[in-house]
Amino acid sequence: MKHTNVHNLPKEIIRAVSNDSYSKGNSTISVTGLLQPPRLRILREECIDQISTDVSDEVWKLLGQSVHAILERANEGSNDTITERRNYALINGWTISGQTDSISIKEKTLKDYKVTSAWSVMSAINNGKPEWEQQLNCYDWLHRQNDSKNIINQLEIITINRDWSKNQSLRSGGDYPKAPVSVIPIRKWSDEEQEQFVQDRVSLHQDAEAEFLVNGELPLCTDAETWKRNDSYRVIKKGRKSAVRVLDSQDLADDFIAKHKDQDSLTVEFLKGEPIRCKDYCEVANFCSQYKQLEEEK
């Protein structure tokens, strides 16, 4: 991967970003890769030498790495904590690997640390985060394949809320994090659910690789995988910059206008939901025919 430095950040930052030591170990695929859309993962592997990202977009990874290093150091010498262990397991002919941040033997709890935003924490508490639930259950599955003696009963995400504000906490109340650190319980699946999920994800990636090797075709990412926003219908009033109302369907918009006192000055503007991941967060968007087609259809 190539790095640019459009904001002229210091050389120390450039070196730190470039020297990322992450490795999936001696495995076919990591849990991180397993949870990615097959299209994204395979395209990334194919285009890795052509991908370019700016150093400024990687800075948050440094904060995450530093937090992991400090917490790992905090657990040194502990007899009842397993820290930063990479486990391996074979399934459907592929070796899967995943590195757990911390396992408390005494508490029988698997913990994962994340540096994230207060908004993400609120979203996880209110709506759940399927990707967090999937990740920790995959780690639990891997742990069980390697250590059947120390059974895990609980899964937890521990977040460092990087943009937490005491004033915002005092003003907002409700779901806003009460402290810069949050502990979020994660639902633990049954052994059978975990096994089936891992098997299904491996099969999905294996099928995608086979199709790509034979026909050069890749499966399309789903709306959920592209983080596509819902289409919306904006009720617009002449002379007003913001929408009077944003609704989910043409019928709802038409009904709103029919009941409005200024209905003659109102119109409906359709806004197609954007694939946020493709637009702002996908490293291979520039190499992806699916994204290019979505852009052409705008």
Structure report:
- This protein has helices at residues 11-18, 31-35, 38-47, 59-74, 118-127, 130-146, 166-172, 191-215, 250-258, 276-281, 289-296; strands at 2-4, 29-30, 52-54, 81-91, 94-104, 109-116, 154-161, 181-186, 232-237, 245-247, 266-271.
- The protein has 298 residues and is of the alpha/beta class.
- The strands form 3 sheets. Strands 2, 4, 5, 6, 7 and 8 form a 6-stranded mixed sheet that branches. A 3-stranded antiparallel sheet has the order 10-9-11, with helices on one face. Strands 1-3 form a two-stranded parallel ribbon.
- Strand 4 and strand 5 form a beta hairpin.
- Helix 6 (130-146) crosses helix 8 (191-215).
- The model has no long low-confidence stretch (mean pLDDT 92).
